[in-house]
Specification:
Oligomer: single chain
Number of helices: 3
Distance between the termini: 89 Å
Shape: rod-shaped
Structural class: alpha+beta
């Protein structure tokens, strides 16, 4: 029989050292793998909310920001603009946005907004994706005496009221998102 003395202190130190090195190796392998599962900064920015200080928007003014590579318009409507909404309702294709899937249920009203004075729209025509122009003036010569203000798409002549609702008999078949 052999009389070897086992140094348990040395064995413990080797076991702990090997465990620490193994854990470090796993961390070095897992961290980049887990990081690769996260969306890129570009993907995060594309779907991230956009914050806008609306307190600086003047009555009647439209500003534009970008969200998901689309133009988004924010309009601060005046009382005169809001008064025209009832007048144009019978002339509209979908006055309550019943046929627009992108319209949240709480905004299916004549102002299409939570706050009547603030309108937020995606600035792309629902016909072919052109960008309508903001025409808040009433009865300009080029749009005629029936025009109550809103958005006009110069590509194919679609007209939208000041809530982005499309008029009947227009090439665009849906309200602005």
């Amino acid at each position: 029989m052999s009389e070897h003395v086992v140094d348990t202190g040395r064995r413990k130190m080797l076991t702990v050292s090997a465990s620490v090195m193994g854990a470090a190796g796993v961390a070095v392998a897992v961290v980049p793998f887990a990081a690769s599962m996260s969306p890129s900064a570009e993907a995060l920015a594309a779907g991230a909310p956009v914050e806008v200080d609306i307190s600086k928007i003047e009555p009647g003014q439209k500003i534009q920001v970008e969200w998901r590579r689309k133009p988004v318009w924010i309009v601060k409507r005046t009382d005169v603009m809001l008064d025209t909404l009832k007048d144009v309702t019978p002339k509209l294709r979908d006055p309550n946005s019943d046929n627009l899937e992108m319209q949240p249920e709480v905004m299916r009203n004549e102002t299409r907004s939570l706050r009547p004075d603030i309108l937020v729209l995606v600035g792309l025509c629902t016909h072919l994706g052109c960008s309508p122009t903001y025409r808040p003036e009433i009865a300009p010569d080029d749009l005629g005496p029936e025009w109550e203000g809103g958005f006009y798409c110069p590509c194919h002549g679609s007209r939208f009221d000041i809530s982005g609702r499309v008029y009947k008999s227009m090439p665009a078949n849906a309200n602005l998102e």
